[in-house]
Amino acid sequence: MKQRADLTFKHNRNAGRHGWLRLTPAYSVKLVTGILAGLHPKQCVIEPFSGTGTTPVVAAEQGHECDAFDINPFLIWLAEAKARNYSAEERAELSNAAREIARNVPGQHRENQWLPPISTIDRWWSASHLKTLAAIYAGIGKQASGPVADLLKIAFCRILIDWSNAAFNHQSMSFKDPASHRRSFDDEPAILEDFVSWSDRISADVAVPLPGRARFLHSDSRTLDGARNRAYTALITSPPYPNRMSYVRELRPYMYWLGFLSDGRAAGELDWQAIGGTWGCATSRVGTWTPNGLFERTHPIHKTLSQIARRSELLANYVHKYFEDMIGHFDALVPTLADGAQVFYVVGNSKFYDTTLAVEELYAELMKRAGLRHVAIHKIRKRNSKKELYEFVVAGARGTARRRPPGLSRHLYRG
Ligand SMILES: C[S@@+](CC[C@H](N)C(=O)[O-])C[C@H]1O[C@@H](n2cnc3c(N)ncnc32)[C@H](O)[C@@H]1O
User: Fold this and answer.
1) How many helices (H) and strands (E) does the chain have?
2) Taking the complete model, does pTM exceed 0.90, yes or no?
3) Is a pLDDT exceeding 60 seen at residue 304?
4) What is the pLDDT of residue 184?
């Protein structure tokens, strides 16, 4: 089994709107396109864990309708801006505003320029880079509003990561060796040039309008507030994996600059709301969390949990809560699915110490338990972390049809 970079975020870098900002756990446009190709035209899609919006944007690109949900307000904002249609006037305004902002930056530097309250900001950016970034950000506020300002902020997010000391050579973000990023010359002209060229690229990417329609709801996938009853004919998603990755932690540079976060406490609170979150105060909350008894006492998950608990009670609690949360999600989901709806969950298994957690099998079981049928597990790729780790599509359908729907066939995922 291969690693199949074509099924990961790496495939999206040059795919128009999909390549604007990187989120390592995002999946590929190709995977979503392949799944949709196996379904009839004019699907009404639900995406309960929308992230950077790969599913809603692909669905809208292909003329489908999609309702997308996420707990993270920054991701809802970003995906909404990615899926919107922009007029020729707005595109021209974007390019002009970017140039005007860049022209004004050298005269805009001020001692008391606003900086985001992100902790140890000097690990992220050098003092001179910060000065330039802060002046660009202040310029966006003066120069534009509405949809054009959203696109300028996305160009800004792009350069703030490209000019940071963050390294992405692992699943989670880390910092580069300081020696590798120290520069001896004034980078301001190059940063401004990057900002203008990213604004131009974004303007070119939105030139073709999307024929479909995507709607975004900042809402919890355990309640799916705002979802329509029995409306959705397909679900394509990748939920958080039980691997202790924190989306808030990964996204914090954007979230602090754009005002979606103002302190560490709020960051931990948001991660606590997220399924699988354990960053900051979310960790101590997981430690004191008590199960709601959603798995019967004889369920095999208890054996796995006690193996993990021998090494870490906290991790055992984490895994237990993760799956109870997913039960809550499936319960909220099923009433929103139309008869015959087909669902596709892209998930990865996990390993804690020497215990491998068969996440895909638990998903299959929880889906059957929630009333879905024809549930099947397709192994699609090896992950590049530990050798036992793979990614799977767990697929199923709602309804009473006796035959497996054709969209669930395994050939869709072949390379
Ligand atoms: C693996 S990512 C989705 C990536 C997405 N497929 C993409 O291509 O960008 C999982 C997402 O689930 C969201 N999430 C976590 N807990 C949630 C909850 N309780 N309700 C809704 N969304 C949640 C996270 O914020 C994250 O964006």
Assistant:
1) 15, 11
2) yes
3) yes
4) 45
